[in-house]
Amino acid sequence: MNSPASNLTTGALLSEGYRRLACAIEHPRLDAELLLAHVLKGGRPRLHSHGGEQRAQGERDAYLALIERRARGEPLAYVLGSREFWSLRLQVGPAVLVPRPETELLVERALALRAEPSGEIADLGTGSGAIALALARERPLWRIAATDVAESALAIARRNAQALGISSVEFLLGDWFTPLAGRRFHMLLSNPPYIAEHDPVLGDAPLKFEPRTALTPGEDALAHLKAIVRKSPAHLERGGWLLLEHGATQAPEVARELVVRGFGHVRSHRDLAGHERMTEARWG
User: How many independent structural domains does the chain possess?
Assistant: First the structure.
């Protein structure tokens, strides 16, 4: 049997965390390492190169508390309190969606469509501020307005901006275009809720831990997407672009809505998984 002291080594803690996660999540070893590195405030390589180091009981308790949260399906980003997006370390929590890699496609297309160093841009439903802050990092002279209906989300977005030293983003409280009355932009971007409220996926981890209002617009999965398309012309300069993230099967319907509303140059783009994940269109 292992002695109590040996159970408090870095290697023993890592093994204990892995065993607990092995029957609960898809990548137990990686997550066990990330969580222990977080508690010990070090990098993953050190966990293995210094596996025999003795740890304090308090470190074990803190680590296993995080392991239990992850085993229940809570998103790793919530457990760690942060997530990387576009090489930016962003604070996240239950008030905002966890930024997904596929949303980086919006950032990529925005940068490709507008090479000008200056511009007026709006990010609708900014959440953690991921899209707005990524654009601000790449185009520091762009003036970016980021709206969200939840003050709790904007508080996180503002903290992220401050931590990153980004001051070119204006965070505004309100539903979609409400805080932008009378303003026009060269580009509008949004990753709105697009899952129907009856979709059983909302009951699965990790979505069940994320804010429901940021995931579903209600019975009609396209309700918010349609509303944004309908209202966008009043806030776009002629020749301006609208970029929308949507569900993997929704591209044809989103494209149809854009064409009906008078948009041109309508084109959908695939994410790394091969899904048509976002659609762009030009006004005027």
Answer: 2
